[in-house]
Amino acid sequence: MKKRIGLVVLIVVAVAVGSTCYAFLNVKAGKTTLNATATSQGASQGSGIPFPEKMNQLSRNMSLWERLSPEEKAQAVDAVIALYKNRDNIAILNSGEFYVGKIDETIKSNPPVANMDIMTLMRILSIMEYDFYNGQNKEELARNTLGDKGYEENQMRRRMTAMFGAR
């Protein structure tokens, strides 16, 4: 019964977030409709795909990611952060823009990651950044999620980042 309630809440939240973001983008774009003239105005208009469809695609894999504008990417990441917060009571404190950069870097350095869905990728990246607040010990969560080898590599990356101030 709880799973069904959770699923209903998830769907309601996803629809609410999606429709709100879609309405915001539609108003922001000057109420431009998605017709041939609107989509032929260039890449600055974004992918031309309605937000709920983008999120549906990203929930299966990240193949659409590279075609999204920076604003669309941030919107998608913010929606995932909100979903984790509302559905699972999990806090991710870094900004959507921070994770857009992390996702871009990760996909460029490891193209098979594009086969993951956005929720899983965000979970892994936020755990790697020790930014996944679900009540578990951060070290234990990282080791369980990344495995021993991945955990050690992540520790090295974090040390290098702390030493050199790079992201």
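[next item in queue]
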Amino acid sequence: MEKLNKISLPATIIIASLVLGGFYYASEINKQKSIERQQQIKIDQEKQDQLAKELKEQETKEQAEQALSTCISDAEEKQTRYWNSECKRLGKIINSCVPILDLTFNEYLKDKGLTIEEYKNQRGITDNNIFAGLLDYAKRQDECSCALPISLADNANKISADDKAMCFKRYPQ
């Protein structure tokens, strides 16, 4: 029995050491996994932040491109209105052309109380293409345009160029 007591104390110490070592090892593994999870969460968050930043930059770029496009379109429309008003002022446009130059196709139809089909019938258009009426209207607008004296034409072109330059300054790409 004495021999058993001599062996049992070291065996108990060894077993206790193994159990405590196992618990310590398990807690260290758990800490390591927790640290790795936190690092992965941080990496994922940084990726999400970067993606959100890139998406925001892309959206801002698209908005700037749209704003520039709208600004240039407005400048061109302003030039057309100026050109047409000068042609009217000089009496170079016949009265039947005035509404054609002043209105878009849809505005013209609404102003005259016409449907697209009625417009096509009045104009003798037999083409069933849904854009046939619009193409005819654009052709009529071209036929109604006039040539301005060089000084007025240059002024109209300068105003348009200045407006477009302002667009590029306001909405740089």
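[queue empty]
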